[in-house]
Amino acid sequence: MHTISYDELADLLGRVHPWALLDVRDAAEYEAGHIPGATALPRREIEFRVRELVPAPGTSIVLCDGADGRADLAARTLGRMGYGSVRSLAGGVAAWAAAGRALAMGVNVPSKAFGERLHVEEKVPEIDPRELAARLARGDSLEILDVRTPEEHRRSCIPGALNVPNGDLVLRGYDLERAGTTVVVHCAGRTRSIVGAATLQRLGVHAACALRNGTMGWRLAGLLLEARPGRPTPRPSAASLAAAERVARRLAVEEGVPSVSVDALLALREVDSQQTLYLFDVRSAEEYAQGHIPGARSVPGGQAVQAADDYVAVKNAAIVFGCDGFARGAMAAYWFRRMGFDGARVLDGGVHAWRQRGLPLETGLPSSVPAEVERARGTVSVVAPADLAGRLAAPQPPLVLDVGTSLQYESRHVPGARWISRGWLELKVGACAGDRRSPLVTTCRTGEHSILAAAALSELGCTDVAALGGGLRAWSAAGLPVEIGMTAPLVERTDIALLGVIKGDREAMRRYLDWELTLAEGGPA
């Protein structure tokens, strides 16, 4: 395994050629302190996410861990997947910190910090939750927009809110401006509502403001959310859709947002394997499924803006945003360029231009099962739920290892199963299965991670390994009993990012909002 020193990494951070820094530790470890610019890719997720994060296998990749061997295991996986330029940081994140270099704390820091700076520098107007509640009680004329994803909105929202994901706001600017009412934008916390209100302000909707601290602030004020809203969101008018295209083109000229033609996009796609191109389709998931440019990734509703590092790991890469025309792609590219992604641009004409060029579209959603799972499936034994139940009732039952997330294990698992993060599997399994001839069965929620885990254990020299076919879903569907709770963890539970899992805890909400506010002044960045 080739290594890189922290001084060499510091030099790499300032270079302009494409490269990626991937932190393969668990979420809580990353949140507690990571190298600025590193993308979180826990080792257990590599097969499922790396091809989207690092599309070109020739990209120079640096891996960092806790100096514990996970980077070496990750490099082995990447090598099998065709990535040929992979190094690990000698001494891991601890060596970087010990050299006196700064660490960042938190999750999605680049986007969150940008949102807070935007709030301060552009004085994005906001409204306090109690003031909004009072105005709602008075019956004031208000338009409340929930700019989160439809899935989030369907769980709960500010009373009366309509769901308009951030990326679609540009389509409604004309209608909202003509209505002349106060527009209140909300998300769960701060970033998306700040960016949403700033978007409307930039579009000329000067009565737009952000709900301070979103649904968290609402709940902390002792106010009740509307549960499971079912109202449909009216479509924007034809006039508003036409105005969106005009306004977006004007904004692109004013702000220097470059556009690319279909021919230019085709040329970008023909470069060699060391060049990275991200092609993002920012329409809704439904629109994407009906027909999209082959290879485009669905990132609807402006979500990439509030979690940029979850989508773009390769620095200095080309990023093309597309929609059905120009407006939504242009707004996404505008915000990405504002965040410092100079390679961001918009596909002029989007899928309509692609179709007019006579090129085919793909339909449906891409498979979520990586090729590595399918390859591993042909090399491991699979046990049916009923057969495993019978084996567990025998005098010498196999040891069941649940390699899903700790939250999934806590919610329900095969009785007697022990939890171990797949990221630690090869390094920690010896503590419970020292005899490599002992029978082992791996499981997870869907059966995919457990297939990979069984293959890894076989490579480690374990001779009696099987994966539960279909995972816990198949086990439950067979009517077999489950166990609830963190009953038998084998490793420390570090796969949960505390700032990312609020779960209604008031103190957790306060902690999260306080952390976001520190980012405005470059606080624990």
Q: Could you name the key traits of this structure?
A:
24 helices, single chain, 6-stranded mixed sheet, 5-stranded parallel sheet, 525 residues, 23 strands, alpha/beta
Could you describe the 3D structure shown?
With 525 residues, this protein is an alpha/beta fold. 39% of the residues lie in helices and 15% in strands. It is built from 24 helices and 23 strands. The strands form five sheets. Strands 1, 2, 3, 4, 5 and 16 form a six-stranded mixed β-sheet that branches. Strands 6-11-10-7-9 form a five-stranded parallel β-sheet. α11 packs across α24 and α12 (238-255) packs parallel to α16 (327-338).
Q: TL;DR of this structure?
A:
This protein has 525 residues and is an alpha/beta fold. 39% of the residues lie in helices and 15% in strands. Helix 6 (109-121) crosses helix 10, helix 12 (238-255) runs parallel beside helix 16 and helix 18 packs across helix 22.
Can you tell me the overall shape? globular
Helix content: 25-40%
Class computed from helices, strands and strand pairing: alpha/beta
Q: Output mean pLDDT.
A: 93
Strand content range: 5-15%
* Total beta strand runs: 23
Radius of gyration from the alpha-carbon trace, in angstroms? 24 Å
Low-confidence stretches: none
Ends distance: 31 Å
Number of helices: 24
The description of the largest β-sheet is: 6 strands, mixed
